[in-house]
Amino acid sequence: MKRHFTEDQGRTSNTRRRTAPGRRPYPGTQAVVRAMAILKAFTDEHPERGVADLARELELHKTTVFRLLAALEHEGMIARTGSAGIYRLGPDAIVLGAQALRSNDLRTAAHAELVALADASGETTSLEVLVSDDEVLILDEILSRHLLGSTPSIGWRFPAHATSTGKVLLAAARYDGPEPVRPRAAASSRLVKVTPRTITSAARLERELQAVWKQEYATAIEELEPGLVAVAAPVRNHERRVVAALSVAGPNTRLSPARIPELALLVRRAAERVSQHLGCPPAVGASALVRQSVRPIAAPASSVEPRARR
User: Fold this and answer.
1) How many angstroms from the chain centroid is the CA of residue 1?
2) What backbone phi and psi angles, to 5 degrees, belong to 85?
3) Can you say whether residue 222 is alpha, beta or left, with left for phi > 0 and alpha for psi between -120 and 50 degrees?
4) 188 in the Ramachandran plot: left (φ > 0), alpha (ψ -120 to 50) or beta?
5) Cα 307 off chain centre by
6) DSSP conformational letter for 229
7) 121 SS3 class
8) Where are the alpha helices (DSSP H) in the chain?
9) Helix axes 106-121, 260-277, angle to 10 degrees
10) pTM metric for this prediction
11) Tens digits of per-residue pLDDT, 90-126?
């Protein structure tokens, strides 16, 4: 028979495991930690819970759970449903969540990761969004540490089909949802040829977007500017919908084909961490990806570089 413990008895339980890895609760905060564990137990899969259900999952005594639920209900964080003994998140929890979303804008959530990504790669990094069917807007960027090849471009717009970030966002516009959106045939006149390597075929672009969506990153190799290479990955919000893209960009003398896989992994890690700052639940297998440390990548020296674009 499973033994239950009261608040006065020390134990290792699911409430302890719900705290951040490697972080122990401050002395005297046990009740707060347990109350937070109860709130976090209400999920999309389990929006309504009973006392016995919570006690079993959190390995707490029913009396303890009931007492904490009563306190949370008094503060509006928990509410009773029409069924006896069944609870759900309360109105004040909704208000608090909405306030958190409003205060956690994209640039704030992404800036530190852009800095870390630029430091690790040695190249220019950016945060970009889709502002129309065919353009991306640079919301934030960190310039390369190299003297040549770095030009500030916050607020600039570029054709989406010629950029790595644009490909990520165009792919999301088609495939990010329960049902893939039937892609509209892109008019050839809209796929402007920026360089000799820019994709101007609607069919070819569609094939590339399908590949981008499957591999979860995109590249643009001399498609926006001769000599410029860029790699991008999607940023997701609390509903796991793609809302932006992170990129790293630099000259082809430093961003060689051999470096693309490692750069793609760096960008994906950074994008996953930004997504988690926005409240996105980690995807299966993503936690290990995010936990891996970011190491600087060695790159050959270059004397001539293109301007840093995506």
Assistant:
1) 42
2) 75, 10
3) left
4) alpha
5) 27
6) E
7) helix
8) 14-17, 30-40, 51-58, 62-74, 91-103, 106-121, 164-175, 202-215, 260-277, 286-291
9) 150
10) 0.65
11) 999 988 887 776 766 888 889 999 999 999 999 999 9
